[in-house]
Design brief:
Blueprint lengths: L1 H5 L1 H4 L5 H18 L3 H9 L4 H18 L3 H17 L26 H8 L4 H13 L3 H5 L8 E6 L4 E6 L2 H14 L13 H18 L9 H12 L3 H6 L15 H11 L1 H4 L5 H50 L7 E4 L1 H9 L3 E5 L5 E4 L1
Antiparallel strand pairs: 1-2, 3-5, 4-5
Helix pairs in contact: 3-6, 5-6, 7-11, 8-10, 8-12
């Protein structure tokens, strides 16, 4: 990318720092995809005979980005960078229609997540999803920062935010640490191991984008409005716009944090006092009482229904046995036999029949007895 820097003054003069970084990244990715150096790309764009072939290569790059899972707006940004590079560096304007940027994606309104929403999603989480959800909820970290984490040893974690170029620390709640410890134990991980295994940042990000939408749908939220960034926004909203919250989220703070000097213990103490209580997601007492009362009523209704089914079953069994015994008696009489071999007796008659030599066969659900001679 050194040769790209040589044309920076002409190509990106006056553009915001963030745009410069994004355009650099776009040209770098295309160079890796096409296996063309920046200088080779410039020469190909200047050669009108190769323009159509180069545009086809750019269209293939677009398909590659979409297959990789890049959002429509990010894909537009990358293609815009290539078109801008062509116009300003190679002085060749790519003809309209040769590289379709595609429609600009309308930004969907993001959901405003609250404690009860997190509680709802946790009901459907496995160990890994629970750890990620509580980690991001309690720390407000971007997904790419979480993807790079190693197994934490405590509730204060050191981090580096590449977007802002800042080294910082963030804190997590006891609930999040417990969830992470359970996941670490399940996966048999050791201290300083990659927390999520050998997975690329982009792959982890795509996985979590899909999973959180699925969890949102299962818990009754509008999955179209839920994304990992909603958790970061929720933390910012709950924690408030303070120097502490800005530092914990990796934002730049006044004087690059020169006057924000706290030990891990002091940082965690302030976090536990000012922020952690607002992130607590256990059910409220009133909600728990209401759910228990609802459960009690449903259990009582189930008991009544089961009792009714049992009575119906007892009646059916008794009637069927009585029919079989009556049929046996009629058959014995028709064949000129003696007394019936089986009869039904109640409790008051049972002892008398037993003294006469009858034998007990079974007890019916209604309390009567089947005996035979």
């Amino acid at each position: 990318m050194d040769k790209l820097d040589l044309v920076n003054d002409v190509w990106l003069k006056g553009r915001p720092e963030q745009t410069v970084k994004q355009y650099h990244r776009a040209i770098k990715y295309f160079s890796e995809y096409s296996r063309l150096s920046v200088e080779e790309l410039k020469k190909r764009l200047e050669n009108k005979k190769q323009l159509a072939e180069t545009c086809a290569l750019i269209r293939g790059f677009k398909d590659f980005l979409q297959h990789k899972g890049l959002s429509p707006n990010s894909t537009r940004l990358y293609l815009s960078a290539l078109k801008d590079f062509s116009a300003r560096v190679a002085l060749i304007k790519i003809p309209k229609g040769m590289v379709d940027l595609g429609p600009q994606q309308v930004i969907t309104e993001r959901a405003i997540l609250r404690n009860e929403d997190i509680l709802g999603m946790l009901q459907f989480c496995n160990a890994k999803e629970r750890a990620v959800l509580l980690l991001q909820w309690s720390s407000g970290q971007a997904v790419n920062e979480i993807a790079k984490m190693k197994v934490p040893t405590g509730r204060v974690v050191k981090a580096f935010r590449s977007k802002a170029g800042t080294s910082y620390r963030f804190c997590i709640t006891e609930e999040a640490k417990t969830a992470i410890d359970a996941y670490v134990k399940k996966k048999h991980l050791q201290e300083n191991d990659p927390l999520w295994g050998k997975i690329k940042v982009d792959s982890f990000t795509l996985w979590w984008q899909r999973r959180i939408k699925h969890l949102a749908k299962l818990s009754g939220l509008d999955e179209k409005k839920v994304s990992p960034h909603c958790l970061r926004s929720a933390f910012s909203s709950i924690a408030g716009q303070t120097t502490l919250s800005d530092y914990l989220m990796g934002h730049k703070i006044p004087y690059n944090g020169a006057y924000f000097k706290k030990t891990d213990e002091e940082l965690l103490a302030e976090y536990d006092k000012e922020i952690a209580p607002r992130l607590f997601i256990a059910k409220s007492d009133e909600k728990t009482k209401a759910e228990l009362e609802d459960l009690r009523l449903r259990l009582a209704e189930t008991e009544r229904r089961l009792e009714g089914y049992a009575q119906q079953l007892d009646k059916y069994v008794t009637e069927e046995v009585e029919k079989q015994i009556e049929g046996s008696q009629d058959k014995t009489a028709t064949n000129g036999g003696g007394s019936a071999h089986r009869i039904i007796a109640n409790e008051s008659e049972l002892l008398e029949y037993l003294n006469q030599g009858w034998t007990l066969v079974s007890t019916l659900p209604n309390g009567k007895f089947v005996i035979k001679l």
